[in-house]
Specification:
The structure is a homodimer of 303-residue chains.
Chain A (H helix, E strand, L loop, with lengths): L9 H9 L11 E12 L2 E8 L9 E2 L2 E3 L6 H13 L2 E4 L41 E10 L10 E9 L15 E5 H4 L19 H18 L13 H12 L5 H10 L4 E8 L7 E6 L15
Parallel strand pairs in A: 1-7, 5-6
Antiparallel strand pairs in A: 1-2, 1-4, 2-3, 2-8, 6-7, 9-10
Chain A binds a DNA duplex (27 and 27 nucleotides) through helix 6.
DNA sequence: CAAATAGTGTCTTTTAGACATTATAAG
DNA sequence: CTTATAATGTCTAAAAGACACTATTTG
């Protein structure tokens, strides 16, 4: 039914170039991982950005990232970068392309591995680190526009990390090399441009990566228990609700939220304790339950 | 709070190695695209597979794919491969990672595999092509396990394509170089192993890629109008229902399905005509509406 | 006629969302 | 006391799902 022989016979071409005996037969790419690390700080969804010290985009903010090493898996590289940037240990890295019903429980995914401390390189002040804490880590998408890096052909496998609120990199500072910034400002929510320092567009295609990561997070907390990744090990229903409110940018009814979240099997398990850290009546403390898929889901309010 | 200097100062490292003046400073990768092309044939979800003519995995079935060219975007490469393999024109390719309102699509981990096909091997008869037709195309996930291809380091950016039923590659044939095969058989649905020819595991990590693609499709038709990508330009409600039944592997109530699908704004628009190609009372013909996000969603029946 | 598919309606259960009320802390 | 937050309950509207019934074709 089609032109003979031409159609899916590109395979010939493939094998010829795939031959290890002719390494110059295929175009070489650099492969990196970039990280969209999100957290909730002061009731706002924030991302970790680092300031670039060299061209291109010198002085601009960018997402943290680095090269994938010779014998390193993509998930391993992302976990390594996450440790290097934040001290966070990846708690879950799934091969699965997340889907509601398919998201298996994933706990330990990528191994911690050797942080491999770079020698003398850095003055490196204010690390936003919180060693010993865990974060959710998953692959986001891959970006490979030939022009995305002016220096060479780089394909970046972006990852999304969700972490509990971490200590500020350095309170009061202003010209540091790393910081948490509200995603609204980073993504230039129209009217925000020109006002704030971080309203300058991110380097490379990192604004697109971040936007994709934010949308992934926003949609995924609907159908999974991932919102708990933004919370400390023990948290209250109110704290979890404030996570949803910050990530979605909406206000939720505390009573309906409480009823729904406590009624979803496997979402939360009471830890026994209570706290008054939010003021008011003591609230029950919970831990994340084993469920990864929420049924029924938490639905974002309509437009 | 963390080890000084080591943390996010990988930027130095990054920039040093990124320098175009030292191309040997970063490890070179081959980058490919692999395609999980899905369609619905004879009430079963099927995938396009090609037979490998050379080692490794000689004689095994694999997903179609090929190298990303020097100055080619990832989406462009995937669209090119799709045309080469099937004659299908990519109708939609989104950079966006996940499902809009809901569900995150995928994140994937690692896996290897380049499809390789033998040159002389193929008489290349039966292309499952259907020139001039369109298909949905989107990025799925990226697989980069260092061992996924025994020959060299290959990172593959897998894509998912959804197409209407196409003419069989070659009816009656049995040892062709390309064919549609039910995903159940390809993924070795337990009891299916050993019975059928395609019960032999796919080459490389293609079973993982295909499984991820199938799960992406299954979840995405819940919250988007993507199921129409499996249908011809004009289709009936019954035909659309059979798509859902095939993809999900369930039986749906025709009456509730009809009420729901016609009641979802923007999902379907009547084209005016009717058809009796399914037998019985003439059915109204519809086209896909403009809506991409379904509200309310079509929910998969529970376990 | 029977058989098959299309399309509409009706009823019950479940869920979402609006909102009242009570409980227990801090200041 | 007031104020803030937590937790439970009640009501209504919408949606899901089970299922009866009618409509229009082919054989």
């Amino acid at each position: 039914m089609t032109d003979e022989g031409t159609v899916y016979r590109q395979a010939d071409d493939y094998d010829r170039r795939m031959s290890p005996y002719d390494p110059s037969a295929f175009p070489p790419f650099a492969v990196t991982v970039d990280l969209a690390v999100l957290t909730v700080r002061r009731h706002a969804l924030c991302a970790l950005v680092v300031r670039r010290g060299e061209p291109p985009f010198q002085g601009r903010w960018a997402l943290p990232g680095g090269f994938v090493r010779e014998d390193e898996d993509l998930a391993t590289a992302a976990a390594r970068e996450l440790v290097e940037e934040t001290g966070l240990i990846a708690l879950s890295t799934r091969t699965a392309p997340s889907a509601p019903a398919a998201h298996p429980a994933a706990t330990a995914g990528a191994a911690p591995h050797p942080p491999a401390a770079p020698p003398a390189t850095a003055p490196a002040q204010d690390p936003p680190a919180a060693l010993g804490k865990g974060a959710h880590l998953e692959q986001l998408a891959t970006y490979g526009d030939p022009a995305r890096d002016p220096r060479m052909r780089v394909v970046s496998v972006a990852h999304l990390a969700l972490a509990p609120d971490l200590p500020a990199p350095r309170a009061g500072g202003d010209a540091h090399s790393a910081r948490w910034a509200p995603v609204e400002a980073l993504l230039g929510h129209e009217d925000a441009f020109g006002r704030d320092e971080e309203a300058v567009p991110l380097a490379f295609d990192h604004a697109q990566i971040l936007a994709d990561g934010v949308e992934r997070a926003r949609s995924k907390i609907e159908y999974s228990s991932l919102a708990t990744a933004f919370c400390p090990p023990e948290f209250t229903v109110g704290e979890l609700r404030r996570v949803y409110e910050a990530v979605w940018g909406v206000v939720l009814d505390p009573r309906n939220f409480h009823r729904k979240v406590t009624g979803t099997p496997g979402f939360l398990v009471p830890s026994g304790g209570t706290t008054t850290r939010q003021g008011g009546r003591p609230a029950q403390l919970f831990r994340a339950g084993g469920a990864t898929v929420l049924n029924p889901p938490m639905l974002r309010p309509e437009v």
